[in-house]
Amino acid sequence: MSEGARRYDAFLFDMDGTIINSIPSAVRVWSEWAMRHGVDRDELFRVMHGVRAIETIRRFAPHADADAEFDWLLQAEMDDVADVVAIPGAIDFLSRLPAERWAIVTSAPLTLAERRLAAAGITPPALIVTADDVSKGKPAPDCFLLAAQRLRFPADRCLVFEDAVAGIAAGEAAGADVMVVTATHAHPLATDHPCFADYAELTLSIAADGRLSVARTRTPVDI
Is 79 a catalytic residue? Predict the structure, then answer.
């Protein structure tokens, strides 16, 4: 699809790696957790991004008390936000969106989401769907479907912004179009979806009817 050709009812944003960079914090906390449980750190980091913490705990430490481990991880991440920052251009981009036309859809619990957004200087939207709101996390589509439902728009008329494989799969399964943010990627992600490094690359357009479209500043975004 050529630049500006498709308009969306709403934008749905993942949080970590998509509008904020919390990677250093996550690496520190989860590295300590992996060491405590004898978990292969590289394997853990290969699959954990975008997935709810409780599901990662159950996968890698099936004999541990999952609730206790979750509480430990949550507190550790809540305490480690000093270097959590917004993805470049994200604050300005989000501030220009109509309040009723966007949501954050994150695998983090609400308390951690609010903590990290505050640390990054991002004002939360009216709607945040978190790990607390669904029984099946990403890559299941439930979180994006719920966000679209609460915004009162069909999911297939929403655009999902994601950075992780699990989240991309969730957006696809929800029937939404997907754009991939690569600001925190150490290596290229194999995807057919349009990618952009940060929000300084994007131009936002809001139609008279409130619908949204986005294009690269210099290069068309084909969706």
Answer: no
pTM of the complete model beyond 0.70: yes
- 220 has a pLDDT exceeding 70: no
Set 16, 80, 142, 163: catalytic member: 16
**CA-to-CA distance for 112 and 103, rounded, in angstroms?**
16
* Residue 183 DSSP label: T
pLDDT at 50: 79
Q: Which domain holds residue 186?
A: 10-21+84-216
145 domain residue, yes or no:
yes
Q: Per-residue pLDDT averaged across 99-106, rounded?
A: 97
Q: Is pLDDT larger for residue 127 or for residue 52?
A: 127
Task: Please tell me whether residues 130 and 203 are part of one structural domain.
Answer: yes
- Considering only CA atoms, which of 89, 100, 109 is closest in space to residue 16? 109
Verify whether residue 65 is a known catalytic residue: no
Task: Write down the catalytic residue from 9, 14, 80, 163.
Answer: 14
